[in-house]
Amino acid sequence: MKRRDTLKAISLTGFGLAVTPVEAAVPAPPTPKPLKIPGGRQKFEAERDAKLMGEKFFTPHELQTVTVLSDIIIPADAKSGSASQAGVPAFIEFMMKDQPGNQTPMRGGLRWIDNTSKRLFGNDFVACTKAQQIELVDQIAYPKLAKPGMTQGASFFSMMRNLTASGFYTSKMGIEDIGYVGNVPNQWNGVPNDVLKQYGLAYEEREIAGYE
Amino acid sequence: MFIGQDELEAVKVSPVLLCIVYYVSNQISLLFTYSFMNSFHLNHAPTEYDVVIVGSGAGGGMAAYTLAKAGAKVLLLEAGGYFDPADPKYITQLKWPYESPRRGAGTTRAFGDFDAAWGGWDIEGEPYTTVKGTEFHWFRSRMLGGRTNHWGRISLRFAPDDFRRKSMTGVGEDWPIGYNDISPFYDRVDKLIGVFGSKEGMESEPDGYFLPPPKPRLHELMIRKGARSIGVPVIPSRLSILTKAINDERGACFYCNQCGRACQAYADFSSSSVLVKPALKTGNVTLVNGAMVREVTTDPATGLATGVNYIDKATMDDVKIKAKVVMLAASTGETARLLLNSKSSRFPQGLANSSGVVGKYINDSTGASRSAFIPALMDRKRYNEDGVGGMHVFTPWWLDNKKLDFPRGYHIEYWGGMGMPAYGFGWGVEAMNGMIAARDGSMKAGGGYGAGLKDDFRRFYGAYVGMAGRGEPVPLESNYCEIDPSVVDKYGIPVLRFNYKWGDYEIRQAKHMQDTFEEIIHSMGGIALGSKPDASNNYGLAEPGKIIHEVGTVRMGNDPKNSVLNKFQQAHDVKNLFVVDAAAFPSQGDKNVTWTILAASMRTSEYLFDQVKKKNI
C-alpha cells in the first residue's frame, strides 16, 4: 500500500476520536467483595487477577497516547473495527501490571514519543495533527530504516505493534477478522476436497478407505 | 474418600455415592482377590494400608488402578489439589482467548492461562538449586494426575533396540529387561487407555493396538510430501486420544485441539481422568490431596519400609502413615529426593542407596526446533482444522547412527495451521513482512502499520509451520541431582540441587536436527525463520529439563552395585519398596516415556501382587 493510501485509510477511520473519555477504556476498580474463583483458575491466580484489576498503571494522558497509537497500528476498515474498538488499550494496561517488565519500556517509550514530537512539532504526540503523527510514526515503524536518533522509538513502536496485534486478534472482533472458525465440537474429516485440489495434494488410499 | 485442601466440597457431596460404590465394588473384588486380601489381613478401617503410593501421575495412577482392582487397600498421596476436567470449577477447554485478561499468556502458568497443568518450572515456596556452571529446569505439576495433564499425548513404545543401546554402541546402559518382557503390558495399556496410530511394520517403532488416526491437515500433507521427497519418513502420529469411544466412561474426541487444557469428555489420557477415577470407584483407594511426602520410614531392625511421613499442606500437620508396601511415583526428581531425604543409621546415604546411584544419570530428552513461513499457504481458504490436540503426523528416527557422529536418534514433531489466536499472535511481524512481496508484487520494509499491516496479518494467517526434534541423550554419571546442604522448601524439606551439562553427542545430534529442519523446510518451498542456530548456541539445544522428559535417577539393573532397583523396579536393598515412575528407567529412547511408565507400572504392580500371593513380601 502506498503511503498516500495509508493516510487515506487512517483518516477514514477517524482514529483519535475514540479516545474520549479515556478512563472508560480501563474499567474502574471493582468494589471489594468476597472473591469468586472463576472456573479454570487456581485461587492464587484469581486473587492475583483481582488485585491487578484494582490497580491503575497508565495516566489518562498515557492511555490517550496508547489509544491513538494502537488505532494507527490497527485502524478500522471495511472488514473490522479498530484496536481501541476491540478493547486493546485495556489489554495493554493489564499486561503492564501482569508482566511488570513491560512497564519501563512502555512508560519510557510513551515519553520518548512526546519528547520527540515536541522537538519536531512543538506538541505532545496526541496534540499533533494526524499528518504530524504519521510523519513521526513513519520514522519508527520500519526498524531497519530507522535513522540514528529514531532507533529507540522504533523499538518502542515494535513493542506497541506486538501488543496491539496480540490484543486485537485475540478479541472477538479480531478472531472474526482473521477467520478462525474452530473452538467448537466437530468431526475432523480431513482437508476439504477443493482445497486439496487447489494445492495438488491427495490423501493416501488407507486414509480414504480407512485403516484396518 | 477425598481429603485435601481444595476438596471440602467434594467431601460434602460424595459420601452417599461413594458408600454405594464402595459396597458394590467390595462384593465384586472379594470374589477375585481373596488371596491378596487374606495375605494382608485387612480390616475396613485400616490403620495400616496394604500399599501407600506417592504421586498420582502416570506411574502412581496405574499402580493405584491395578492394585485397587486386585483388591489391595491403597492410600494414594498427591502433593497437589484435586482435579477433574469435567467439573466447571476446573474447565478451561473451549474458552476463548478474551476470557483471559492476559489472553492466555503464560504469566502464572508456564504454558498459558488455559493449560491444564498447575505448577511449572518455578513454584513459590518450593525452590531447587543448580551447581554453578550447570543448568537444569525442573517442571513440576502439583495436581491430581500430575504432569499427565500437560503433555502431547505422544504414546510411543520403546523398540527392542531401545533396551540394549549399551550393547550396541558401548555407551550408556542396557535395561535389565527387553521388549518381550514389556510388550504384553504395552498391549494391555493400548486397549485399556486407547491410542491412535497406524501399523507400519517398522522395527524401530513397534506397532500396537491402534484406533484410527486422524487425517493429516493441509500443512501436514505439505510437510509429508516435502520430507518424503528428501528421504525423511512421515507417518501418522500415535497419540492417546480416543478417535472412537472405547467404553462407557469416556467419550470420543470432538476435535477441539485442546488436549493440553484437559478434556471434559475424558477423550484424552490423563492419569487423573482415566486411572485414578476408576480406581477410586473400586472403593479400595483412599486419595489424599495436598500431601507433601517428606520421608519414607523404615524399621531399624528389619530394614523394611514401614510407611511414609507427609506434611498436610492445608494444616501443616506432620502425618504418619503405616503401610506394608511403599511405592514411589513422585516423578524422577521427587522420587530421588524422597529416597535421599530418607536417611537413617541403617541407610546413611539415603534409602535404597547402598550403590550411591540414587540421583545419578538423570537425563532429559534433547530438543531443538525451527519454524518457517510457507508462501504457498498465504491467503488460504478458512475452515476448521483444529483436529486433535497435537500433530496428526510425525517423523520417526530413520537413520543409522553407525554412519553418524552421534550415537542416538531423534524423532520430529510438527505444528502449524490455522490455530486459535492467543497471546503472542502477530508478535515480531517486523522480521517477517519485509521478506514477502505485497499483493502488487512490491517489496516494502519490515514493520509498518495501518490497513497494509492488517492485510498482512490476514494473508499470513495459517501460513506458518514448525518442527521440533526430540532425541535420546546418553545418560551420564556426571549428570545428577543431590540434596542441597543448605536450602529447604517452605515445608522444611531439604531441596534438590542439580548438576547437569549436555555432552558432545547431544550437541552433535542437535546440529543434525537443525540441518534436517532446513532441508525439510526447503523441500516444501518454505522460508526458515530466524537465523539458523549454530555452535555459539549449541545448535538451539534446549536447556536440560526444558523438554520435561527427565528419567533415570533411581535406575533399575541386574547389578546392585550400579543400580537401585531390580528388573521389577523393586529396591535391591528394601524388598517392600518399589519405584513406578520414570526414575527407574536406565534410558529413554527417543520415545516419550509415558507409555513405558504405564506398562512398567502395570508390570510392577502385578509382580507385587504375585509376590504377596507367594508370601515373599
Secondary structure elements and their pairing?
The complex is a heterodimer of chains A (212) and B (617).
Chain A: H1 3-13, H2 43-53, H3 60-73, H4 88-98, H5 103-121, H6 130-140, H7 151-169, H8 172-178, H9 193-199, H10 205-209
Helix pairs in contact in A: 3-4, 3-7, 4-7, 5-7
Chain B: E1 2-3, H1 8-13, H2 15-32, H3 34-40, E2 48-54, H4 58-69, E3 74-78, E4 129-130, H5 165-169, H6 179-193, H7 218-229, E5 235-236, H8 271-281, E6 285-289, E7 291-298, E8 305-312, E9 318-328, H9 332-341, E10 366-373, E11 393-395, E12 410-416, H10 450-460, E13 464-471, E14 480-488, E15 494-499, H11 504-523, E16 527-528, E17 577-579, H12 594-613
Greatest interface (CB-CB under 8 A), with counts per chain: A-B, 76 and 79 residues
- Terminal residue distance of chain B: 27 Å
- Sheet with most strands of chain A: none
Query: What do the pLDDT scores of chain A average to?
Result: 90
Number of H- or I-type helical stretches of chain A: 10
Helix residue percentage of chain B: 10-25%
| Rounded Rg of chain A | 22 Å
Enumerate the spans of chain A where pLDDT stays under 50 for 5 or more consecutive residues. Answer: 1-19
Strand content range of chain A: under 5%
Number of E strands of chain B: 17
SSE string of chain A, helices as H and strands as E? HHHHHHHHHH
Share of helix of chain A, binned: 40-55%
Molecular shape of chain B: globular
Proportion of strand residues of chain B: 15-25%
Q: What separation lies between the terminal Cα atoms of chain A?
A: 53 Å
Radius of gyration of chain B: 25 Å
